[in-house]
Amino acid sequence: MRILSGVQSSGRLHIGNYYGALRQFVQLQDEGEGYYFIANLHALTTVRDPKAALALAREAAMAYLSLGLDPKKAVLFRQSDVREVLELYWILGTVTPHAHLERAHSYKDKVAKGISPDFGLFAYPVLMAADILLYSADFVPVGKDQVQHIEFARDWAVKFNTQYVPGYDPADPEGKERGHAPGILKLPAARIQEATQTVPGVDGQKMSKSYGNTIELFGDEKEIKKRIMSIKTDSTPVDAPKPTVDSPLYDLLKLMLPESEFAEVDATWKAGGKGYGDYKKKLLEAYHTTFGPARQRYAELAADPGEVERILQDGASRARAEATRLMDQVRKAVGIP
Ligand code: ADP
Ligand code: TRP
Fold this sequence. Notes:
The protein is mostly helical. The protein has 2 domains: 2-198 and 305-334, Rossmann fold; 219-299, Orthogonal Bundle (Tyrosyl-Transfer RNA Synthetase), CATH 1.10.240.10. Helix content is 53%, strand content 7%. It has 14 helices and 5 strands. A 3-stranded parallel sheet has the order 1-2-3. Strands 4-5 form a two-stranded parallel sheet.
């Protein structure tokens, strides 16, 4: 079973990215053959500074590695290192209905957030489908916001196969019955982790780099402290029981504390007697307990950029071997020498 996923290197990673995405990716490396990549071509839709684009892609790779991704088990690579993805992107685009892209939620959401409505942003799902289909992925772990993109990838794979593979039957995509041919492009499935909830930011909205409300994974220690101390709370007096709804502090404690420790916090929270400041200190401790070891590894990798690059090059050559195999079939099917 091949598991593939990517993260866009469009900003510093935060704990929402960890609990919503990276944690699952890392856990899944033991369940199948993992392909994990840094979507630095997608990131160009928002990152227009070349120095930042390079640095953010490297930082995303360091984040994966320090959070436990093992490059001996999984293939870790940079999207742009396998140029075949751009060729498949174009070919897929020739069978992609414009109407599908017009109803893409992510495009509308991003434009609403003020991202420039350029062609690249509009075509984003086509490149994402190419990412997935190029490596014949079986499962794609993603957040809920990405599920529509995986459905598109399936639809377009079926369209491609129907158009170009003689004997392909969409009702039998693997060609198991006599007289049916298997598709060239394998149909992927989304895999959403049920426990994944939306991580709130310090202001109570969804944590997102575009809202400036994040707690970073590898940010400066003082800044992390400042952010945690600034978590929005209400004016409930120290002695009174604290509300558990609409409280990002409560939600973050629940997310980050081990179950037994959270049970204690939960009891005093509901009984009253402790102030929000104490709970913020508790959260800061939990942050350092949870991410301290990864932060340490991150610092070591940052001091050894050659090692990170070696890992990425090795991943790229393993990924390219797969990509080359698939593209030989795709070119032949469409009539490109
Ligand atoms: P951002 O909103 O900061 O721009 P991205 O859209 O780049 O983050 O998200 C990258 C991945 O992290 C996605 O799979 C997304 O589902 C997940 N993610 C981002 N923010 C959160 C959050 N607040 N809670 C849960 N998952 C999140
Ligand atoms: N669009 C994804 C996100 O914003 C990142 C991504 C790009 C991706 N290509 C992918 C995820 C392929 C899974 C598979 O999170």
